[in-house]
Amino acid sequence: MPSLQWKTTALAVALLQLITLSMEAVESSSSSSLSALDRIHQLPGQPQVSYQQFSGYVTVDVKKQKALFYYFVEAESDPASKPLVLWLNGGPGCSSLGVGAFSENGPFRPSGKALVRNEYSWNREANMLYLETPIGVGFSYSSDSSSYVAVNDKITGMDNLIFLHKWFVKFPQHRNTSLFITGESYAGHYVPQLAELMLQFNKKDKLFNLKGIALGNPVLEFATDFNSRAEFFWSHGLISDLTYKFFTSTCNYSRYVSEYYRGSVSPTCSKVMSLVSRETSRFVDKYDVTLDVCISSVLSQSKVLSPQQVTETVDVCVEDETVSYLNRRDVQNALHAHLVGVNRWLVCSNILDYEFLDLEIPTISTVGKLIKAGIPVLVYSGDQDSVVPLTGSRTLVRGLAEELGLKTTVPYRVWFAGMQVGGWTQVYGDILSFATIRGASHEAPFSQPERSLVLFKAFLEGKPLPEVF
């Protein structure tokens, strides 16, 4: 009997084939006018730029009026020659617009009532497409509130696939453009799963010119990723020797999270986590253990990965400017955005009921399938992140390389950004790469924008990271 995953993939492919047939006439006659309707003429407070911006909705389910919101920024120069990059933030349930575009690697960052230019925007190297997904995140919505219930990885993957297919109807000039998918945190699920669906679809109708994926501090294998947290805490002096012993032998972090999302935290795990929480302190940002007390809740995109902190109040010294900006009526009008079923735009959705136990689905095996299909993969880690530490990611990448029989082609070494060491890297078989970004948080482009841009450029060009400054 075919597996549920196979059935889901087959359903998605069949659905898209029907969409292809039903939209051929529309595509041939009105694609240019469709994209023109989404053109952003000027964002409030925006500095003058020479490139174009677009934003708006793509309906992924007509019956339930499920519509995903996107923000598209053309490359700074010669966009026709630059690749297309889809960026997805994690959570699950956090905004690629508010986190990715306006806090990390987009062209602008809010400052007061205006926008300031991000010198290290990724649209210097690519056409950037930011998607608010799943349904219920940011400006994305459904007219049927049941669409927000029991959302899972399979539903999200299918919606994302349909979105991208229909987005190409609006922007047919990018259909043959080299496509890369990038993201961070829980996008360690979103990105490989979407890429796998693309490859399945391409077997019937080659639409997606997928050239590679990049995953930042990603959740790839629940136990390995989460349980590397204990050693990171201990090695950085955040917990005592005794607590480290309890955290590795009495109740590890994957057990605690599993119990938490099943609604049955054991007294043993509760006691251990109380020790860990007290010693690590609520005044240390777990997503960047070197960050001072002024903690940006832009990092709340990963609150699901740290459930014991969900009820804590965190400083919004950076995020509040993004929230204020995106809740302005004139900004929403300029973005062609509207709120449905909610009163305010939020960084992370409070109406989405996601199947958090999907955390336990390993996606490292999906990454392996992509590599076997010839798709290059980069896994990178901000090295100050204790939520999904570099040690777990490095272990998983090395294990996958061994499983696939990939030999080291670039030995473990430093790489440079400007006059400084940008991090460390190792490459296997010229198709699977691991890299750290020195001094970076869970959201690497937020905390180390220049180094992140150097890494991004090398990834797009398929070149090793710079060996010299």
Automatic annotation (TrEMBL):
Enzyme Commission (EC) number: 3.4.16.-
Keyword ATP-binding carried by entry: no
Location(s), subcellular: Secreted
Any single Pfam family the record assigns to this protein: Peptidase_S10
GO biological process: proteolysis
Keywords: Carboxypeptidase, Disulfide bond, Glycoprotein, Hydrolase, Protease, Secreted, Signal
Annotated GO CC locations: extracellular region; vacuole
Signal sequence residues: 1-25
Coiled coil regions in record: none
Keyword Signal: yes
First-listed, main subcellular location of the protein, grouped into a coarse class: secreted
Molecular-function GO term, any one: serine-type carboxypeptidase activity
Entries under PANTHER family matching the protein: SERINE CARBOXYPEPTIDASE-LIKE 46, SERINE PROTEASE FAMILY S10 SERINE CARBOXYPEPTIDASE
Functional summary from the UniProt entry: Probable carboxypeptidase.
Family: Belongs to the peptidase S10 family.
Designated name of the protein: Carboxypeptidase
Native species: Camellia sinensis
